[in-house]
Amino acid sequence: MTATIAITNGTLIDGTGSGPRLNGTILIENGRITSVDAAEIPAGVQVIDAEGQWVLPGIVNGNIHLLDGIMMMGVGGVEYLARYEGNLTSVIEEAAQIALAAGQTTVFDTWNATGPVLASRDRIASGEVPGARIFAAGNIVGMGGPFSADFNLRARQVISTTFANRLDELFSTGVGAEDLSMLAAEDIRPIIRNYLARGVDMLKIAVSDHLLPTLGATRGYLTFSERALKVMLEEGRAAGVPTLAHIQSVEALEISVELGFDVIIHSTLTGQVAIPQATIDKILEKGIYCGVQSVNAAYQSLLEQIQHPFTLYGGGVHIENEQRLIAAGASIMLGTDAGCTSHDVLTDQHGHGDLNRPWTLGTDHVAWGQALIEKGMSHLQVIESSTRIPAEAYGKSADIGTLEVGKFGDVLVLGSDPLDDITALLDVTTVVKAGEVVDRAALPLQPLASVPIPGDPS
Amino acid sequence: MTATIAITNGTLIDGTGSGPRLNGTILIENGRITSVDAAEIPAGVQVIDAEGQWVLPGIVNGNIHLLDGIMMMGVGGVEYLARYEGNLTSVIEEAAQIALAAGQTTVFDTWNATGPVLASRDRIASGEVPGARIFAAGNIVGMGGPFSADFNLRARQVISTTFANRLDELFSTGVGAEDLSMLAAEDIRPIIRNYLARGVDMLKIAVSDHLLPTLGATRGYLTFSERALKVMLEEGRAAGVPTLAHIQSVEALEISVELGFDVIIHSTLTGQVAIPQATIDKILEKGIYCGVQSVNAAYQSLLEQIQHPFTLYGGGVHIENEQRLIAAGASIMLGTDAGCTSHDVLTDQHGHGDLNRPWTLGTDHVAWGQALIEKGMSHLQVIESSTRIPAEAYGKSADIGTLEVGKFGDVLVLGSDPLDDITALLDVTTVVKAGEVVDRAALPLQPLASVPIPGDPS
Amino acid sequence: MTATIAITNGTLIDGTGSGPRLNGTILIENGRITSVDAAEIPAGVQVIDAEGQWVLPGIVNGNIHLLDGIMMMGVGGVEYLARYEGNLTSVIEEAAQIALAAGQTTVFDTWNATGPVLASRDRIASGEVPGARIFAAGNIVGMGGPFSADFNLRARQVISTTFANRLDELFSTGVGAEDLSMLAAEDIRPIIRNYLARGVDMLKIAVSDHLLPTLGATRGYLTFSERALKVMLEEGRAAGVPTLAHIQSVEALEISVELGFDVIIHSTLTGQVAIPQATIDKILEKGIYCGVQSVNAAYQSLLEQIQHPFTLYGGGVHIENEQRLIAAGASIMLGTDAGCTSHDVLTDQHGHGDLNRPWTLGTDHVAWGQALIEKGMSHLQVIESSTRIPAEAYGKSADIGTLEVGKFGDVLVLGSDPLDDITALLDVTTVVKAGEVVDRAALPLQPLASVPIPGDPS
Amino acid sequence: MTATIAITNGTLIDGTGSGPRLNGTILIENGRITSVDAAEIPAGVQVIDAEGQWVLPGIVNGNIHLLDGIMMMGVGGVEYLARYEGNLTSVIEEAAQIALAAGQTTVFDTWNATGPVLASRDRIASGEVPGARIFAAGNIVGMGGPFSADFNLRARQVISTTFANRLDELFSTGVGAEDLSMLAAEDIRPIIRNYLARGVDMLKIAVSDHLLPTLGATRGYLTFSERALKVMLEEGRAAGVPTLAHIQSVEALEISVELGFDVIIHSTLTGQVAIPQATIDKILEKGIYCGVQSVNAAYQSLLEQIQHPFTLYGGGVHIENEQRLIAAGASIMLGTDAGCTSHDVLTDQHGHGDLNRPWTLGTDHVAWGQALIEKGMSHLQVIESSTRIPAEAYGKSADIGTLEVGKFGDVLVLGSDPLDDITALLDVTTVVKAGEVVDRAALPLQPLASVPIPGDPS
Fold first, then answer.
1. Alpha carbon of B145: minimum distance to chain C alpha carbons (Å)
2. B386 touches chain C (CB under 8 A)
3. Strands D32-35 and D21-29
4. Are the CB atoms for C49 and C71 separated by under 8 Å?
5. pLDDT at A268 over 60
6. In terms of DSSP bridges, do strands B21-29 and B54-57 run parallel, antiparallel, or are they unpaired?
7. Would you state the pLDDT for residue D14?
8. Distance between CA atoms of C205 and C176, rounded to whole angstroms?
């Protein structure tokens, strides 16, 4: 990581919220930016000429699940887990490579199998394998595994209990609904402390339940008492990790804001009840970061047409909530729930090549940008929300999120102007991560889940 | 109701906790007790000679569901509701008559279809039909109807949506999970006020969820935030009705105690986690009444043998919880969840004539007494718990619960000594309700659910 | 039944296939037609002046299920049976009254609960209650009851086994799949003989399986070996009843034709495989009657739009099969599978007042006529197929099917011309059954299933 | 395959039905037996001294499914297929190696994914990989794939349709229920001819349905008309392959015997109806071979205790059927339905090391022997039924089944006497296949399904 790179002649959109700046030359040495307006380019440096191109910070995706979580709530998750068990890190790394090739240099995985995602995080961090930089929460505290009511309880009718339990344990990691929800608040403390000691990067808590796949979306419960939430927040803060709230009702949102979580994931998912204005005010006052999982109009229309169970989540009051948060100037952060969907599930859903699908990693941030623009964000704000804001939300501003001296050399070069058309984010010419040019064509190195299953003799 | 009755020569166990008293003569005039040690019997009075018999206050059952609620969580509820829809008051009255014939002169129905149960309550109160005196909570606030995840969501796969929705609305009465759980606390207030205006006698709130039939018993959620609970309690208190908490975890119990609910229904159902001693102390300190749904050893053994889903509820830590509450001297009240189970469901379960079955109205209080004695209560305490204590719990001491002057003339005469053997409660010779001798042989007047379905031509 | 009736001045369409005849006067004495061209009307006779009207034989519906069978394959059958158990004859009679009021003076019920349908048949035959004349097959031999895989196996997950088994026995009557399909051919004989001795009017056999509701419509099995079928046919013929085949594949049809069944019910339901021409030739050669359950284009389009599971049954190759049978001149008989659908199920399906719905008794024969005309039948043929042909199919020509001397005085008078527009069949002015004018406005006498469920106090 | 082997000094049980013979020396040259009583051993020959041991023909298992078919009817099949898709030949070969190591030198796979099983057959035949010699039927004609009603229809609720359909097609191979059961007999002919051209070794036909996993075992249908069966048999005979019938009712058995199938698989599975004596007589008269899947008493008792769905199949009338076939002297052939069960499913079922479990390949033939002895077979007959008889049944007597000159050198050497205790079949000292000593310790070469799933980082 000692090579030096210069990116020259491009139009800089540096993520700070400033307007575009012409002819900036960025210098990256030992992985970090040493200049953003270098007058001279040292000899022997690798030069990337961005003449007529646009230069942005690497995308920071604040909410994804590298092993595809959306899929695990519906059909297909069962076979995905059976197929890749024992090899989950390969799929996680495939996902991180797909993200990186698309310009997402950093991803925050806010739910996943803890062991595998931390292992892959470390392998990527050490340079053993390429991929987007991963920060990982592991399980959402209070949520069960993939074969529980939180995802696909019904699958247990057709799979072995031994397999189901093993996977549920792998995912719930001792901090699932069944581990915690019956306990008194203080009995939860040592379990959380123990969990944090595993080295997760964030503490994400199921303030609301996650029973949607089993019960539908018409009711919302609280997983924990406020007393229990306080205990967990104390532990998270003591461990120095950002705290994230999973919510799906206005009371859960209100409690999360009140208790001062750092980030609210899918902050606009409040059933079909509008967020009270007082709550929005408090979010701004407290400087809480808002994850928003937005669906663009084209895809929302498809969901409605096929009566998809997620229709209400992207539509209805959700839309107003998004518009009001944008108008209020909340700190909105890119987050998509995208992951490495299996090839078969995409075939089922006619999803191959569908750029509007919000959950397809690699194009997810573009569909998200479109959706936010439809709801009132400017193009420039979309770029901030996809770079600087998630970095701040997770306390990573020292390293990522803008093109500023001292930060990692994570750079995205585009062939067309994203301030004119946000789909320019798809027109990637170069991705640099920590000062190294990404060999995009080679990624993912060994695709498994994103390509057709190898055939048996027929 | 103007006849005068004298019950003479019996051994009085008056419900106050005093030991048995010989040769008391009770005089009841205009429905109320005017003497408990009358020296002389006025002329023209109807005399019940209780020589060699035992005279108790009428049993007060603090927790039943006249339309059988236990059944609605398993098989059989679907056909029960289909069969008796349009005629639910008849089944409710059948149940109230079965209870009365067994000596339960007052029952507190803590979950039922609000409209029908209030209509039957009023018909019985006015003397239009016989039956145990009913006080009713209607729906448990925050809980859905019989075809929701709170009871039998799966039934919707085979019944018409029109039928399912109509019944769900009849039961949830606008205060179900889907009506309330997505709302902000203050938005709940007018809905509760409105609900109380219907004339329910108690306000029962789902502090815990009731998802057990759909998810199993391994996790517990909170239906409402504390803020929302406080709003509801304010409204209940303003309306002057007792407040009841449905709980199934230690945190839900703790919150309920903290907030000062009057009665905790099934207070020992805390998953498999022991109630913290501090919580027990607070229960006693605050004088909170504890409903306990106990299973006797014989039936518990049967549940375990057939791996019944309710096994853990009657067993495990639940048993210790009961023992500790008894030992601590908590105010424990009779409550059984019994109802008018359908004849077919009892046939399925080999339940006809099974005196240990806790959910068969009419024998439920006896199985309950056995269960409590097994866990450490004295026989005399069982009688208090089945008479005076529930009356106090619900603020009805002025009228019921003991054999004291001024109270309703609700009297149970037994042919053998319940202080010797609690099954003497089955040896009923006479039941008097509000000064009128109950024609026990005639009850239920027109049995529907408790007898075989009439046959079609075969 | 001794009154004499004269129907005068109408245009006669007598069911024989002759064209319309003007000014015929029909005389009915003691329930039977004594003249169709009476020159003089005896004194004291009740005269119905059909001036400007059309006079037809009463409609003969060759395939209905008075307790609605279609519904029992989907949602709603469960609650219907629970609600009306013990009272099934009332619903059967309600259905027969709805049919009669619409001009269906005779119906052939080819599947139903044997005991109830025979009881209602007899009550109507004796004049105890009004209604269409019923001939009944009872169970389809080889088919299980309403809670078996032939209808709604899934319902057993939510209803009591005691209820499920009792109803299954009531319907399968000892000749269900589980009674017979494991037996050797000769062991079936005494069971069939016994069944016929109950007095059923037809012997209907499941040549094909009826697993469609559980397995979908993509495969077809044979319930019995040919050897077993022969045994059953021998018994049916010995008992002098018509023999009916339930088929749903070309092989089942071929076998049924080969063995010489009298009637093939839904003869065109051969999966998506065209009936071989040789089989059609044999049907004509042998004079086998073809039941056809046709769906008109408007309703077929609706089925396709909502992706109804019955879409393929009314559409695809089925349509060609119908066209080819019509073109070949087969003896096609009215049959609709209609029954007394519950009000709730119709609400679910937006079916109230939908004249195209093929399964709503009372308008079913009109939708059927439309469907057959769309496939090539003439209006006059539709009338023959709805009167004379089903009478012949079932060997009842001596009594019903045409306006000829000696037959029952079953007459339908229409206010407009059915040869011009078949929906004239809805324009009924008078129905006469066995010489008695039907009080159409009074029918059904006590509606149960076809009206909203009575409400409980709300 | 040119080495010469001599097996000396053992006690020969040669499979012909003759009693044991002492001190036989078997000579195998170029893979085939050249002497069974060699006086002299040529120089340079590999000598296996079987002094004090017993020498039998290699076991010939007449009915197994290398990919475990039993499992696919219950839980676990879903994850098994997902996990090994694209690699099915590896699992098939693992199974064939487990079988071979246990002394099963030849197996007849009567249902499996056609492409993979034929590929593995060929790889083993060519010597590319070790394993039991495979003869394979591919699909059972008329039966659907693993995600159809024939196995696990319910799985489709949780897996992707793309995956489900691909696997169903892989297994049903164009001759499934949905391909054939709606067709007229003659339309089936070219499809079967085409299927046979793929090179399957046997033609197995679903005379009975295989709906048991979806419908339970209480009813039995015929998949094909006799006419269709005749067409298929004609084609099978023309192709020179043995014909096998899958039956599960007396009528299906009767039809199969009548039509002259070569082998009846699980010939005693006739519901709970005894096989008529006349049918047994005909089986003997026609020399039809009877597959029997027997359960020994210990395992039958376990099945009954846990109320396993297969209880009735191994018990009840089935037992009598087996006893009567044995007593009648029918040609009974070893067949077990065993396969390579997944490690997780065995864990679920506490099946690891359970020698009584009939479906665990490698010990299956021993449990089978025990079961047959319990029902009246002699030890010597068990050995014949496990060697010579299946070879004859499938027309392979020229090559396998006995220790006779000219046959393949397939030899099983045991350390104890199987005529004394049939579990001696587990006491294998040497297995020779086609003259090559099997390296038993090395098999299976690369275990996948029979060992724990490799773990992910935890």
1. 14
2. no
3. antiparallel
4. no
5. yes
6. unpaired
7. 96
8. 10
Q: What angle do CA C56, C58, C64 make, to 5 degrees?
A: 135
Pick the closest to residue D344 from D266, D250, D251, D453 (CA basis): D453
C220 vs D272: CB contact, 8 Å cut-off? no
Shortest distance, CA D218 to any CA of chain C (angstroms)? 6
User: Domain C4-56+404-440: which topology?
Assistant: Urease, subunit C; domain 1 (2.30.40)
Scanning every residue of chain D, which has its alpha carbon at the shortest distance from the alpha carbon of A77?
D159
**Chain B residue closest in CA terms to A143:** B219
| Cβ atoms within 10 Å of D24's Cβ, excluding its own | 21
pLDDT in tens, A141-158: 999 999 999 999 999 999
Give pLDDT, residue C308. 85
The verdict on C228 touching D (C-beta cutoff 8 Å) is yes
Domain B59-393 classification at class level: alpha beta
Confidence of residue C2 (pLDDT cuts 50, 70, 90): low
All residue ranges of chain B with pLDDT < 70 are 1-2
Q: With an 8 Å Cβ cutoff, is D454 touching chain A?
A: yes
Average pLDDT (C304-321) is 87
In percent, how much of chain A has pLDDT > 90?
92
Q: Cβ contacts (< 8 Å) between D181 and chain C: which residues? A: 219-221, 249
CA atoms within 13 Å, Cβ hemisphere of D21: 15
How far is the alpha carbon of C177 from chain D, nearest alpha carbon, in Å? 6
How do the domains of chain D map onto residue ranges? 4-57+404-438, 59-393
Give the span between the Cα atoms of D13 and D54, in whole angstroms: 7
**CATH for the stretch D4-57+404-438:** 2.30.40.10
CB contact under 8 A, C178 and D225: no
Q: What is the distance in angstroms between the Cα of C213 and the nearest Cα belonging to chain D? A: 12
Closest by Cα among C173, C235, C198, C25 to C119: C198
* CATH ID of A4-57+404-440, from 3.40.50.300, 3.40.50.720, 2.30.40.10, 1.20.1250.20: 2.30.40.10
Q: What angle do CA C261, C267, C273 make, to 5 degrees?
A: 125
Q: Is A177 on the interface with B (CB under 8 A)?
A: yes
CATH top-level class of B4-57+404-442: mainly beta
Contact, C142 vs C206, CB < 8 A? yes
What ipTM goes with this model?
A: 0.96
Is B288 in contact with B261 (CB distance < 8 Å)? yes
Write down the residue that tokens 């589980």 correspond to. Answer: C178
Cα-based distances in Å from A306 to A302, A303, A310, A311: 6, 5, 10, 9
Low-confidence ranges of chain D (pLDDT < 50): 1
| Residue of chain A whose alpha carbon sits nearest to that of D122 | A457
- Residue D371 CA to residue D336 CA, distance in Å, equals 11
Nearest chain A residue to B251 by CA distance is: A184
Strands B54-57 and B411-414: antiparallel
Separation between Cα atoms, residue C212 and residue C220, nearest integer Å: 9
Q: Which of C228, C287, C141 is nearest to D225 (CA)?
A: C228
The strands making up C104-109's β-sheet, listed across from edge to edge, are C59-64, C104-109, C133-136
What is the DSSP annotation of A220-246?
Answer: --BSS-HHHHHHHHHHHHHTT--EEEE
Is residue B279 within 8 Å of residue B257, measured between CB atoms?
Answer: yes
DSSP B90-128: HHHHHHHHHHHHTTEEEEEE-SS-HHHHHHHHHHHHTTS
CA angle C269, C271, C276 (to 5 degrees): 80
Locate C66 and state its tokens: 């008075």
Residue ranges of E strands in B327-406 = 331-334
Task: Tell me the three-class secondary structure of D241-268, residue by residue.
Answer: CCEEEECCCHHHHHHHHHHCCCEEECCC
